[in-house]
Amino acid sequence: MGGWCEQASEQEIALAKAEIGAEGVGCEPASAVTLAGLKKLVAQGRVNREERVVLVLTGHTLKDSQYTIDYHRGELLTAAELAGATEDERARHQLLRKPPIVLEADETVVLKALEEQMARVNAASTPAAPLVPTATGIPV
User: Which DSSP letter does residue 34 get?
Assistant: First the structure.
């Protein structure tokens, strides 16, 4: 038996959390460290891409909802934190960040905005493929 311990930067955690969220799973930042760490272990060759790995996510996204809000507003990471990201990581952030849409509290306005968004999604010819396909769709 053996094992490794790895650390993750705020930028790596934010990216991992956004990737998990894009799969429809809401987790808190501390739980996203599992994916951020796994990505580093794969890059180092300590874990092979063909191996099966279980990542345990114990914290729900509502535990720290402000983190998610700040991420999508582009207010979470400092310039210094983003400077430490690779070009690929910065591109993933841009793909995953979904700025909020501010609407009037009116049912008609909300429904119209939803219909417009769905029309844009349906009009797209093909969805963007993950940068590195995996079984779950989350690039590693």
Answer: H
| DSSP per position, 53-111 | ------SBGGGGHHHHHHHHHT-SS-HHHHHTS-HHHHHHHHHH--------S-HHHHH
pLDDT digit string, tens, across residues 7-41: 999 999 999 999 999 999 999 999 999 999 999 99
pLDDT bracket for residue 126 (50, 70, 90)? low
Predicted pLDDT of residue 3:
84
Neighbouring C-alpha atoms within 13 Å toward the C-beta of 75: 8
Residue 20 in tokens? 């998990």
Instruction: Please answer whether residues 18 and 138 qualify as being in contact, where contact means their C-beta atoms are separated by less than 8 angstroms.
Output: no
Q: How far apart are CA 105 and CA 111, in angstroms?
A: 11
> Is 134:140 a contact under the CB 8 Å cutoff?
yes
